[in-house]
Write a structure and sequence with these properties.
This protein is of the alpha/beta class. It has a single domain, classed as Flavodoxin domain (Rossmann fold). About 30% of the residues lie in helices and about 20% in strands. The protein has five helices and seven strands; from the N terminus they run βαβαβαβββαβα. Strands 2-1-3-6-7 form a five-stranded parallel β-sheet, sandwiched between helices. Helix 1 crosses helix 5. The protein is globular.
Length: about 190
């Protein structure tokens, strides 16, 4: 399988990158990993022009940045993993910009003609947070559910690594979470 991983952290060697790397290392023996470090790409926020609605069968965003190439990589994958540190109960701004741009992948929302260029794609959420899971990560999980409802993709799992503050000290709990993630996604 081809797995596109979207690292939404601005830190390429931080907690989220470390935990995502554990997952990638675990599954890369049998599957192809295509990591996108969002911080290394230029992805502007959606400007709300809706020009993309004029071409529902292709990515038709008028902005000239890296979002289209990232979306094409997602479209070529079997599974997309969205990985983000928890910032103010939601996604990092780097990943949030890409999420907002998902509007160019969807047409006919709210109608019987609702379609998506990533329809049926399996997705997973991987979040690192400094605090607990409860009363802390509900919003990001809810946003992820709504994103998948909007893009007609399938939530294959949501994985939260709590009390994750120092990359060099990430240990057994994170390894167990990513092992469970790999198993639940059918990758090991």
């Amino acid at each position: 399988m081809r797995i596109a991983t979207m690292l939404g952290s601005p830190k390429l060697d931080g907690n989220t990158a470390t935990v995502l790397g554990m997952f990638e290392e675990l599954v890369s023996k049998k599957h192809e990993i295509d990591r996108v470090n969002i911080a290394e790409h230029r992805v502007a926020g959606c400007n709300g022009c809706l020009e993309c609605r004029k071409s529902p069968d292709d990515i038709a965003c008028v902005q000239d940045d890296d979002a289209e190439s990232i979306f094409r990589r997602m479209m070529r994958s079997d599974i997309v993993v969205y990985a983000s540190p928890l910032y103010c109960w939601g996604f990092s701004s780097q990943l949030k910009a890409l999420i907002d741009r998902h509007v160019c992948l969807v047409s006919g929302y709210g109608t019987p003609e609702h379609r998506s260029l990533i329809e049926g794609k399996k997705t997973a959420l991987l979040v690192t947070c400094a605090g607990p899971i409860d009363n802390n990560s509900e919003f990001i999980q809810g946003i992820f559910d709504k994103l998948n409802e909007y893009t007609l993709s399938e939530v294959a799992g949501k994985y939260i690594v709590p009390f994750c503050t120092t990359p060099g000290e990430i240990g057994v709990d994170a390894k167990e979470i990513v092992a469970g993630m790999a198993k639940n996604l059918g990758l090991i």
